[in-house]
UniProtKB/TrEMBL annotation, chain B:
Cross-referenced PROSITE patterns: ABC_TM1
PANTHER family xrefs: INNER MEMBRANE ABC TRANSPORTER PERMEASE PROTEIN YDCU-RELATED (PTHR42929:SF1), INNER MEMBRANE ABC TRANSPORTER PERMEASE PROTEIN YDCU-RELATED-RELATED (PTHR42929)
Localisation per UniProt entry: Cell membrane
Name of the protein in question: ABC transporter permease subunit
Keywords from the named record: Cell membrane, Membrane, Transmembrane, Transmembrane helix, Transport
UniProt-listed InterPro entries: MetI-like, MetI-like_sf
Source organism per UniProt: Mycetocola tolaasinivorans
Length: 279, 306
């Protein structure tokens, strides 16, 4: 009789003591928090549609009206500047970080930890603190390089290091790079050829992910640009918000939508398939 | 072709690589390949970091001084550090709590469900959604003309701002910060929570434990390091955030990042020339302590996630 009792209670216990909360509770929590998080986004859309008489597309169409060209020129200038900065940061990731990471993995395995440490420093040092030390370096390098955009791009290359390094690392770990390189080398391929014909194609997922996350970081950067007096997208959005808050909100929405697309693509490609030789 | 070649090739190159006195030359030439990146990191990361840490110890003419460092205990500066720590503590605690609740609610859906995948995707976007755009999102929501402000006033007759407009003051930072803190907690805490093994609840139930026993004796002890780690990450995240505050608060320097702005823009603050350096030093020291604690907790968390 006692066995029956124990069995019965054990079954009841197991049924009611699954880890997961009850479905109605879980759904309520998620719906409430989801709505709270949707609210600012809805508010931004509504705000951008406000007109003097009600709601309309006035502010959206006004953006591309030639009559407003002069007023919005700094904004589009900032956009071009930020895209250029993103390109420079991507160039650094592909031409400097990637070869260095591969070289360290292939020839200097003892330095792997050192490289990992270097690439996380930009997370540990807040941008607002780093800018104190960047200001004199910016001043000195601009005298040599003579282009504020290029110097700021070099600085942004540092800012994206933690994110880009992680993306590259994940795709390098998924492939047996040493074997591929040795195979290609023994068949007579030169180093540049190995890099362009073997490594770039095999690691393309990681490279695309690293580039996209770099674009996302650079397009959102405000701290360093504003304190070094550079006009990038975010600095331009802030300065136009004082005279035209609607356009500032529209650009924020567009930037958010763009970054969402970039991160969605990264999410798609970040799950590496086991097919390595599908070149 | 590549596939069939790999095995013999590896053996071949191993033997040729191991032969004789080539060692140093073979290392030297690839070593040169590290030089460009090393120089780049030196100039744009290591030198700025060292400068940020040390400028506080010098005056404008380059002479050593304790003057700026002494300013760190100036009541005004202490108050901004206090404000920064307070807002970080509050948003990290709330963010960690709400984030953990979201993770817990997600447990009742299958890990492969579309809902969980999309919550994770949205979280990764929103955790990145800082900066000035976030400030505009909240100006459009709870600004003086914001959607919620207007709705509350017109529909419910409730004034969001009976007194001063707190959105452009320190309290105005709380909601925007939570907007990126909660998703960040979801991203960091979800793996730990999914790592709780069903076998543990079964073992608990078989041994006669109640649900409460399970959480008290197994669940909470196992999850505690991950929760604390997430909390520290959130704390560091809001402690170092600048752009949202800069876009919302245009006057005054209530938190440390804003005081660095003031110190960088105006020549002298509190009668001192390199105060920004001292403030940066203070921030970095706090961040390093947070990061060390975080990595110690990570090591403990990883134990249960195999």
């Amino acid at each position: 009789m006692s066995t029956v009792k124990t069995l019965g209670s054990a079954r009841r216990v197991r049924a009611s003591h699954s880890l997961a909360p009850r479905r109605p509770f879980a759904t309520t929590v998620l719906v409430v928090i989801g709505l709270l998080f949707a609210l600012p986004l809805i508010a931004m859309v509504e705000f951008s549609l406000r007109t003097t008489t009600g709601h309309g597309l006035e502010h959206w169409t006004g953006l591309f009206d030639p009559a407003n060209e002069f007023r919005y020129r700094p904004l589009f200038g900032g956009l071009v500047e930020s895209l250029t900065l993103a390109l420079i940061a991507i160039a650094i990731v592909i031409l400097m970080l990637l070869p260095t990471t591969l070289l360290v993995r292939l020839r200097f395995p003892k330095l792997v930890r050192v490289l990992e440490f270097i690439t996380v420093i930009p997370i540990a040092i807040p941008a607002i603190a780093l800018v104190v030390g960047l200001a004199p370096v910016f001043g000195a390098s601009i005298r040599i390089i003579n282009s504020g955009t290029v110097v700021l791009g070099l600085i942004y290359g540092i800012l994206v290091l933690p994110f880009a390094a992680r993306a590259l690392d994940a795709s390098i770990r998924a492939v047996d790079v040493p074997t591929l390189v040795e195979a290609a080398r023994s068949l007579g391929a030169s180093w540049p050829r190995v890099f362009v014909r073997i490594l770039l194609p095999v690691l393309r997922r990681g490279i695309v992910a690293a580039s996209f996350i770099s674009i996302a970081v650079v397009l959102g950067e405000y701290t360093i640009a504003s304190l070094l007096n550079r006009q990038n997208l975010q600095v331009a959005i802030v300065s136009i918000s004082r005279s035209d808050p609607y356009v500032a909100v529209i650009f924020s929405l567009l930037a958010l939508a763009f970054v969402t697309v970039l991160l969605a693509v990264i999410g798609r490609i970040a799950t590496p398939k086991r097919k390595v030789f599908d070149v | 072709m590549t596939q069939t070649g790999s095995a013999p090739v590896r053996r071949l190159s191993r033997t040729s690589g191991g032969a004789g006195g080539w060692g140093s030359a073979q290392r030297l030439i690839p070593g040169l390949g590290l030089v460009p990146f090393a120089l780049y990191v030196l100039i744009f990361l290591l030198i700025p970091t060292v400068l940020a840490l040390t400028t506080g110890f010098f005056n404008r003419s380059g002479a050593f001084t304790w003057d700026n460092i002494a300013a760190l205990v100036d009541p005004t500066v202490l108050k901004t550090f206090g404000n920064s720590l307070w807002i970080s503590l509050l948003t990290a605690a709330l963010g960690a709590l709400v984030g953990a609740i979201v993770c817990y609610a997600l447990l009742s859906f299958s890990p492969t469900s579309r809902l969980r995948a999309s919550v994770e995707a949205v979280s990764s976007v929103l955790a990145q959604f800082g900066g000035v755009m976030l400030a505009f999102a909240f100006i459009a929501t709870i600004g003086v003309q914001g959607l919620l402000t207007v709705l509350l006033k017109d529909v419910f007759g409730v004034a969001l701002y009976p007194g001063e407009i707190w959105l452009y003051q320190m309290p105005g930072l709380i909601l925007p910060y939570l907007y990126f803190q909660i998703p960040l907690m979801v991203l960091t805490f979800m793996p730990a929570l999914s790592g709780l093994k069903p076998a543990w609840t079964e073992a608990n139930a078989t041994l006669g434990g109640s649900s409460w026993t399970f959480w008290r004796r197994v669940g909470i002890p196992v999850l505690a390091p991950a929760f604390a780690g997430g909390f520290l990450l959130l704390f560091a995240n809001s402690f170092s955030a600048y752009a949202t505050a800069a876009a919302l608060i245009s006057q005054g320097s209530q938190i440390v990042p804003l005081q660095i702005r003031t110190a960088l823009i105006s020549e002298t603050v509190l009668g001192r020339e390199n105060l920004a350096g001292a403030l940066a030093l203070g921030m970095i020291v706090i961040m390093i302590v947070l990061m060390l604690a975080y990595s110690a907790l990570q090591a403990r968390t990883a134990r249960w996630q195999k």
